[in-house]
Amino acid sequence: MLDSIHVGTSGLMGHQQALRVIANNTANMNTPGYKSTTLGFADLFYANAAGSGANGLRLGHGLGTTGTRLSFSQGELRQTGGDFDLAVEGEGLFMLRDAQGQVRYTRAGAFEFDGDGVFVNRSDGSKVLGVDASGRVGEIQLEGLRVAAGKATSNLRLAGNLSSTSTEFTVGGMKVFDGLGQEHTLSLKLTSTEATKPGSWQAELLEGTTSFGAVEIVFENGYPDAASRSLTFDYTPAGRPAQPLVLELGADVSSFAAGNLSTLAMSKQDGYAPGNLTKVGFDATGALVATYGNGQTAKGPRLALGRFTTLDAVEELGNSQFAEANGIRWQQGLAGDAGFGTVRAGSLEMSNVDLSREFTELVVMQRGYQAASQVISTANDMLQELFGMRHK
């Protein structure tokens, strides 16, 4: 009967541990990136009963536990609207570097840029790791991305109709940029040379009264001929190096009779002024995307992701973080790589705890605990009865 009390006690301890696992799961049902665990049970060793012989009665020694097992099933991806709240759709985990330089992994992508412009984990300040264009793994920083340099204009496109009955027309307000991003306003003075060559015009590029050369445009059947589709000028802004400008007369340029009304104008150009950083975000490949006030965008490092091939390689650390275990190295990759998944910005992965399953397990473990306690109570009553018989 003392053995029965020991067996019952092992049942109490095993179900008590299971209850603690269930309690931890339910307590973290709203914890981003939390992965639920289950406790495994196994019966303890068996031995022959005293005096029963080699093939006689074999009795077990109670309940043992085989450890907890993680479930890495995908949790719900809940939209938060935060630009730096990130979730992974797939098997990848974000990589972090803590204050001691150790690499950690997490599915809880609640991140932010700190005061130094470094991308960090919001809960503990550990650095989020990324991969730059050269393949080097390191911190993700805004350094070098706060300002976008301007671009000198090299190509302009015209569109509209140049009235064939006019003798002169000026395309004004052509805004271009030099190599430092400074804006200049040019004009294209068009003078008909119909008298010497049918359908021909002289095109002179001006900035104010300064001329940068003149070229000939010839229209055939109302459209520029092949030689007139691209006009090249050597433009030299004041105090700046020369920059070639190509004026393209595309399919939208024509020269038909329209009285003195001409609609020819610049439709677009490829230069832009410098711009300050206005917004930062991440795309589905985990790449940092910087947006600037001049309408330009630039891509920075991509988020580094880790992936394990066996649960034996995973150690739970708390704070929804994990580490390599048992000397088994994790695979490293990027969002979009096979097996790593994609990144969804503006969302967080919530806990994968199945509350209905946990409540079911709770009832089962409660019944097991009650049964084990009943065994102990019964064995105790039998011992009391035995002691009472001795006194009689």
UniProtKB/TrEMBL annotation:
Residues 87-139 form the Flagellar hook protein FlgE/F/G-like D1 domain. SUPFAM superfamilies: Flagellar hook protein flgE (SSF117143). InterPro entries: Falgellar_hook_FlgE_sf (IPR037058), Flag_bb_rod_N (IPR001444), Flagellar_FlgE/F/G (IPR020013), Flg_bb/hook_C_dom (IPR010930), FlgE/F/G-like (IPR037925), LlgE_F_G-like_D1 (IPR053967). Residues 345-386 form the Flagellar basal-body/hook protein C-terminal domain. Keywords: Bacterial flagellum, Cell projection, Cilium, Flagellum. It comes from the Bacteria. It holds the Pfam family LlgE_F_G_D1. Its main location: other. It is found in: Bacterial flagellum basal body. GO terms for cellular component: bacterial-type flagellum basal body; bacterial-type flagellum hook; cytosol. GO terms for biological process: bacterial-type flagellum-dependent swarming motility. Residues 6-35 form the Flagellar basal body rod protein N-terminal domain. A flexible structure which links the flagellar filament to the drive apparatus in the basal body. Belongs to the flagella basal body rod proteins family. PANTHER family: FLAGELLAR HOOK PROTEIN FLGE, FLAGELLAR PROTEIN. This is Flagellar hook protein FlgE. It comes from Ramlibacter cellulosilyticus.
